[in-house]
Design a protein that fits this description.
The complex is a heterodimer of chains A (232) and B (234). A 5-stranded mixed beta sheet of chain A has the order 1-12-8-4-5. A 4-stranded antiparallel beta sheet of chain A has the order 2-3-7-6, with no helix packed on it. A 3-stranded antiparallel beta sheet of chain A has the order 9-10-11, with no helix packed on it. Chain A is elongated. Chain A is of the alpha+beta class. Chain A is built from 4 helices and 12 strands. The radius of gyration of chain B is 52 Å and the shape is rod-shaped. In chain B, β4 and β5 form a beta hairpin. The two termini of chain B are 89 Å apart. Chain B has 3 helices and 9 strands. Chain B is 24% helix and 31% strand. The chains are: A alpha+beta (232), B alpha+beta (234). Chains A and B meet through α3 and α4 of A and α1 and α2 of B.
Chain lengths: 232, 234
């Protein structure tokens, strides 16, 4: 059966326009010649997914797919537009080697075409998977692959992760800005103004988004994100 | 305040904060949910106080904050199993049974039963001829090999004009298929030379025949027939 790991982390730069997904995979450090494949999505509160466009910024292989895990330094960059629910699907599969035996449903990385292939049949030939369409099908949808985990068609030879998170950098920035405005009022006991109320409202939302992220309440976190970004 | 479960109060207060934030976010106007927002703000401040000041305030002060948080967040359901009491056996009062109801209407007629086995009656033969007379007692229809390969007759015949004279036994007739020609085998003949049963061929049928000597004899013949069907042995 395929192995679940924790490999991914997300960082967002200070101007909140660029996000970097980093492969921190340490589980397969003893393995060589693995390649990683990542797909990312911005998810709405009703779970519809909009794909993200990645740029590979640190890899031994070209974009958009692979990070050869002998280096374990893969980083995928995408343009950050909004807070909320993000979902990333990740697999690490062995690089295909000629005349090596692969079982049915195994997934391999074909370096000749920079793509991943799943074996429809057991295979041990000398031709690259991309050249044997009768035995291999190109992997283009990681959700479909991850749905087979634990079933009869489990690839069995991959490491995988599905990573969800609620980002809140824009809301945090708005919260900070509201705090500055509220602080300038220099009034300790007067009735709270609209600025103070905005500060308190964003404070509640920022904390609630953090709690929702920690407790995997992604739909709730996304709903709060959408409202928060209308306020800032 | 030792009875308070701080961790559960904090956890539930955080859950409440998330739910209130969602309600505020989904509202068309913040003013419509002002009370919920105020409640969320208070919960948040209390949580911040616990988070930031727990190392500086006394245990009594901390307990007061948690008590206030419990009240503000409406934390009333502690995550502990309720104590279940023993349920007493209910008293059941039985009333006096009422009168029997009227009989129901007759049911519909049931389906017809299966067809019974073929019967075989007795045949009374009364002959007054002077020579040996042959009389077909029982003729089979199309006893074609190899499907119905043989027939057995249990026979019993008594003279009705003379007491104490009777013949009885079993006669077996068979049709075989050899080179496309049907033949028969009479494997049993019983009785006296002047009265006996035999089998004769009437291709593709065979028949049981009763023979008796000429004369003014009268016989009562009883026959029961059994078809010997084909069982193929592997």
């Amino acid at each position: 059966m395929s192995t679940s790991i924790t490999a991914l982390s997300l960082s967002i730069d200070n101007d909140r326009t660029t996000a970097i997904l980093t492969d921190n995979n340490s589980t397969v450090t003893t393995l060589n010649n693995y390649a990683a494949f990542v797909q990312g999505f911005k998810v709405s509160y009703n779970s519809s997914e909009s794909p993200l466009t990645f740029t590979m910024i640190n890899s031994n292989y070209p974009a958009p797919y692979a990070d050869l895990l002998t280096a374990k330094d893969g980083q995928w960059q995408f343009t950050y537009n909004t807070d909320g629910w993000y979902k990333f699907r990740y697999i690490a599969a062995p690089v295909w080697v000629s005349l090596t035996s692969y079982s049915q449903y195994d997934i391999v990385y074909d370096a000749t075409v920079d793509a991943f292939y799943q074996a429809d049949l057991a295979y041990s030939g000398a031709s690259a998977p991309s050249a044997v369409p009768a035995s291999f099908t190109q992997v283009t949808d990681l959700e479909a692959v991850l749905l087979t985990i634990g079933t009869a068609t489990d690839p069995g030879n991959i490491y995988y992760e599905e990573f969800d998170t609620i980002t809140r950098v824009n809301t945090n920035k708005g919260f900070g800005d509201a705090a500055i405005v509220a602080a300038l009022e220099l009034c300790g006991d007067c009735t709270r103004t609209e600025d103070v109320e905005l500060y308190e409202l964003l404070g509640v939302m920022v904390d609630a988004m953090a709690l929702a992220d920690g407790r995997d309440y992604f739909v709730k976190g996304e709903k709060i994100s959408r409202r928060a970004e209308r306020l800032i | 305040m030792a009875l308070l479960d701080y961790a559960s109060i904090r956890y539930q207060a955080e859950e409440k904060l998330i739910d209130l934030a969602v309600e505020v976010s989904e509202a068309s106007s913040i003013k419509k949910v002002k009370a919920k927002l105020d409640q969320a703000v208070k919960i948040r401040y209390l949580l911040k106080a616990i988070e930031a000041s727990s190392t500086y305030i006394t245990s009594k002060g901390l307990a007061s904050i948690y008590q206030c948080l419990q009240y503000t967040a409406e934390v009333t359901d502690f995550p502990v199993a309720p104590e279940l009491g023993v349920t007493s056996t209910p008293t059941i009062l039985l009333g006096i049974p009422g009168a029997d109801g009227a009989d129901g209407a007759d049911g519909a007629q049931g389906p017809a039963g299966p067809t019974g086995p073929a019967g075989s009656g007795s045949v009374t033969v009364t002959l007054t001829g002077q020579t040996l007379t042959q009389f077909t007692v029982d003729a089979l229809e199309n006893l074609a090999s190899p499907y119905d390969i043989a027939v057995r007759w249990d026979v019993y015949a008594t003279r009705t004009d003379t007491a104490g004279v009777a013949i009885f036994g079993t006669v077996i007739g068979a049709m075989t298929n050899s080179g496309g020609i049907n033949s028969f085998s009479d494997v049993s003949t019983i009785g006296s030379t002047t009265a006996y049963f035999d089998v004769f061929e009437n291709n593709p049928e065979i028949s049981l025949r009763f023979n008796r000597a000429a004369g003014a004899e009268t016989w009562l013949v009883h026959v029961k027939r059994y078809i010997i069907t084909d069982f193929t042995l592997a």
